[in-house]
Design brief:
This protein is an alpha+beta fold and about 140 residues long. It has two domains: about 70 residues, VC0802-like (2-Layer Sandwich); about 70 residues, ACT domain (Alpha-Beta Plaits, 2-Layer Sandwich). Helix content is about 35%, strand content about 40%. A hairpin with a 5-residue loop joins strand 5 and strand 6.
Length: about 140
């Protein structure tokens, strides 16, 4: 099962740096992230190579963090590929709660990190429509 971390933080200088320091000090590699701010507070999503250890180390520093299940769907790196994926998921009643992406090493494909409202159905739908989902070792290693 694959996870990313959601960290709630104040929108002030040094708050994001505190999180990245915990990761760096514990030699936890950051694979991808997103940051969304809403006034005085924000949420950073972290895809790391060791989510459980990152979760534990952030908690030790009294950082508000949750671990959330995700699926990393592989799409072609071409115009319209993400739209096509969303269209197919939507047609199957799958709602995306949160999403961000990153380019894979080959440059020809990208991984879209999806938090889905109805996750088991979402993963089944991804398999049914023939979308490759990255396995833990493909994300974490």
């Amino acid at each position: 099962m694959t996870f990313h971390l959601s960290v709630f933080l104040e929108n002030k200088p040094g708050k994001l740096e505190k999180i990245t320091k915990v990761l760096a000090d514990n030699k936890i590699n950051l694979r991808a992230f997103s940051l969304a701010s809403s006034g005085d507070f924000g949420v950073v999503k972290l895809l790391v190579d060791d989510p459980q250890r990152a979760f534990d180390e952030l908690k030790k520093q009294n950082i508000t963090v949750t671990k959330r299940k995700i699926a990393a769907a592989v799409i072609d790196n071409v115009p319209g590929a993400f739209h096509n994926l969303l269209q197919r998921l939507s047609a199957n009643g799958i709602n995306i709660e949160d999403c961000y992406g990153f380019l894979l090493n080959d440059g020809k494909t990208a991984a879209m990190v999806l938090e889905m409202e109805n996750r088991p159905d979402g993963e089944n739908t991804l398999a049914k429509i023939g979308v490759k989902v990255l396995k833990e070792d493909e994300i974490y290693r």
